[in-house]
Amino acid sequence: MADLEGVKVAKDYHVDVPFANNDGFYVKGANNLDWGMKKHLSNIFNPQSGNTVMFAFDHGYFMGSTAGLERLDLVIPKLLPYVDVLMGTRGALRSCVTPACGKGIALRSTSGSSMLNDDLSHEILAVDIEDAIRMNADCMAIQTFIGADGQLSSIENLSKAINLGMRYSIPTMGVVAVGKQMERTDRFFKLATRIVAEMGANIIKTYYCENFEEVVAACPVPIVVAGGKKLPEKEALTLAYNAISGGAHGVDMGRNIFQSVHSLEMAAAIGKIVHEGFTDKEAYEFFEDAIH
Question: Which controlled-vocabulary keywords does the entry list (predicted)?
Answer without folding.
Answer: Lyase
